[in-house]
UniProtKB/TrEMBL annotation, chains A, B:
The lineage of its organism: Bacteria, Bacillati, Actinomycetota, Actinomycetes, Micromonosporales. SMART domains: HTH_LACI. Keywords: DNA-binding, Transcription, Transcription regulation. GO terms for molecular function: DNA-binding transcription factor activity; transcription cis-regulatory region binding. It comes from Phytohabitans suffuscus. InterPro entries: HTH_LacI, LacI/GalR-like_sensor, Lambda_DNA-bd_dom_sf, Peripla_BP_I. The keyword Hydrolase does not apply. Residues 3-58 form the HTH lacI-type domain. Pfam families: LacI, Peripla_BP_3. This is LacI family transcriptional regulator.
DNA sequence: GCCAAGCTCTGTATCGGTCGAGATGGCTGT
DNA sequence: ACAGCCATCTCGACCGATACAGAGCTTGGC
């Protein structure tokens, strides 16, 4: 039989409450008695109050649930995700709170079960499309949900549209007119290949929708109709998927003079595809990513920088201490277009 | 007021137990009643039994604690760690169990608190030196602890010594005599630089101790005394730290003909250091890593392959369903020396 | 026609703590 | 001497569920 508070209380000859106080409120009893109690506990092999029982009574789970779409291996392969998680972990640690990973491999009954059965004080959602049933389940829990998308009243994100609009304008200034966009979650079956996206607004994935919108607007302002832009679906957010998707753009004739991607990981894949074809980034084909992960700098890649670490931190703070003022419950962080060597003027005679 | 089982029970006019059964044991009541109950729950906004209360009564937390030494950002930067975690997550998911991350930034009171207060059914320890107080705290909890080191009765690992001995023998066959070893956790202050390790057995870090032992034994068998081997401490397990440590070896005169590292991440850093000096891996300097992460293959690096994914899976299984037979509670997985282009004969006249 | 066996559902104890009000007793101030 | 106060400890209710024994009613076999 495992020792409980009562076991220790009986041993020392005090009440259960007092033993509880010895752990949770040291100021509520004399230091001598506290020492005596802790000694007895050590002797009995009692290692402190049962976390579950404590949670039940105090109403605090002591953990934040982290909702992922993708498989763990993919999610943590993206340095952006890792940075985000790190910011979150920092804040969590400062608040004596743990992180409970809830990977949503599929949007099936098992995932719903996992969401419903997670002992957490709230959820941080990392790139889960809004149509997932698991999101509803998280909502139904009646605990705070911090999103990077538009769902929910707690939100931390960036102005996605303005960010890619700036990137698009950069391309326009450079004279590009034949452009391909590589993005995840833009085809229903999530396969690699060219897809037609007549209505950007209709996309279910918040991130892809917004980022494509920004590009579309920038192109439109320069007189380039959306129907002239090649949209290519990637089957996942990884370098490999980016390269595979880029192939569908680069092997066309005439070749696009610029290939942009919705994440750096995909864009790095595009660079890989260029290299495999002996094409020079920024000369033969311009490339733009999104996130500004360390590898982007190393690859001299033009991209949009967003504060991943800070985003994680704020997500944690929003969750653990939701502001009363609704205006403060939605945080929009600044981004910055980082121009590097992967973008350059459209090759002469390309139009 | 949030709805509880009782709220739903009152609404439908059944007992609390029956509502509980509707969720947890569908076979214990008629399908019609169950439907009625679930409908009422939906109507009341009740999203299922409170996870914490359920855990308390049933004695199952529904989560595995994952203990890390390093900062989250580092831990997840290592593909080996991610693979391990992925294997663990797989098994956890199959058992309707979550993963609670418990990063041990420092070995301080806060970390102890986190370990003691984690609502988990057991801990999986990932590369935490045995001297950490947090390990004791985990032990004291009286729940299963799966280690990759020698501590605890539940263990999943590899024969570290035999693995590096094989790598060492490979070097000996190639004729190397001037050798440097880059390792983490071999200096008390964990700084970068050459350190003297007179007694390998005295090292506190299990992994470094074992891996160095294997090399030492292989060298000794070929007549190369340990005192002739240069041991260099890396300040952390990353490519950058590996490169910094390698500098201390490569800038010596005479230069070592081989630099081995205790992890692939460190070894990749060594390769970076070679490149920075226009030295050719496998020709001017041979390099060996450990783990066989994907980047190792891409870098044509000789290394020891260990089954990271499988290791994670087995850790999960050992934890969730500890075998009765003590012999089955310690699993040793096979490793394999993968020879690639980063190792070659010692340069002529190097002795 | 009768008793054992099933199927459903109920009732009570219990999981292991924390919470808030209140009891106790020594000390101070007047 | 007495009220008031602080520091210290106790008491009983409660957090929200699950476990287990058993009650009531229908079946089925002989």
């Amino acid at each position: 039989m495992k020792p409980t508070l009562q076991t220790v209380a009986d041993r020392v000859g005090v009440s259960r409450s007092t033993v509880s106080n010895a752990y949770s409120r040291p100021d509520q009893l004399s230091p001598e008695l506290r020492e005596k109690i802790l000694d007895a506990a050590r002797e009995l092999g009692y290692s402190g109050p049962n976390p579950t029982a404590r949670s039940l009574r105090s109403g605090r789970a002591g953990a934040i649930g982290v909702l992922f779409t993708t498989a763990l291996s993919i999610a943590f392969t993206d340095p952006y995700a890792v940075q985000f998680l790190r910011g979150l972990a920092e804040v969590a640690e400062d608040n004596r709170t743990g992180l409970l990973l809830v990977p949503l491999r599929d949007d099936d009954e098992g995932a719903l079960e996992a969401v419903r059965n997670a002992a957490v004080d709230g959820f941080v959602v990392y790139c889960v499309p809004g149509w997932y049933k698991a999101m509803e389940a998280a909502w139904a829990r009646g605990i705070p949900v911090v999103n990077s998308d538009h769902f929910g009243s707690l939100f931390v994100g960036i102005d996605e549209i303005a960010s890619t609009r700036a990137a698009g304008e950069h391309l326009m200034r450079l004279g590009h007119r034949r452009i391909a966009i590589v993005a995840d979650y833009i085809s229903p079956d999530r396969r690699t290949g060219e897809v037609s996206v007549p209505s950007v607004e209709g996309l279910g994935s918040y991130v892809s929708r917004e980022r494509l919108t920004g590009y579309r607007d920038a192109f439109a302002a320069a007189g380039l109709p959306w129907s002239d832009v090649i949209t290519i679906s990637a089957a996942g957010n990884s370098r490999e998927h980016g390269a595979a998707a880029a192939a569908h753009a680069l092997d066309r004739s005439p070749r696009p003079t610029a290939v942009v991607a919705t994440t750096d990981l995909l864009a790095l894949g595009v660079l890989d595809a260029l290299a495999a074809r002996d094409l020079r980034p920024g000369r033969d084909v311009s490339v733009i990513g999104f996130d500004d992960i360390p590898d982007a700098a190393q690859a001299h890649m033009t991209t949009v920088r967003q504060p991943a670490l800070e985003r994680g931190r704020i997500a944690g703070r929003l969750l653990l201490d939701p502001p009363d003022d609704p205006a403060d419950r939605r945080v929009v962080l600044p981004t910055e277009l980082v121009v590097r060597a992967s973008t350059g003027p459209a090759p002469a005679g390309s139009n």
